[in-house]
Amino acid sequence: xxxxxxxxxxxxxxxxxxxxxxxxxxxxxxxxxxxxxxxxxxxxxxxxxxxxxxxxxxxxxxxxxxxxxxxxxxxxxxxxxxxxxxxxxxxxxxxxxxxxxxxxxxxxxxxxxxxxxxxxxxxxx
Length: 125
Fold this sequence. Notes:
Elements: H1 13-21, E1 24-30, E2 36-42, E3 44-45, E4 50-52, H2 61-68, E5 71-81, E6 86-101, E7 104-117
Antiparallel strand pairs: 1-2, 1-5, 3-4, 4-7, 5-6, 6-7
């Protein structure tokens, strides 16, 4: 049986703008024994994919987890205001791939699902 190619997740203008201005995300991975692990990462967003690297990435627990289980989640969020309380953000669920270029090892996350909230024009799925 052939696998169907998954459609790329598209981002609204508001989501893309928010993500392009954000620099820190929380990355959730899971070990081979389903032990969760969440860490902050700095990231780049090219309009379709998320990329991150880091010091000693190859020896990190996040890298080891991705090698065993490529399913990840990213949350990029903040508070637009405290009074009134106005949280906003984007959650990404997808697949992570370890890749390498002249600068070294990095991770590419391909979104399979996204949820956003609190962005200028409401956000949404």
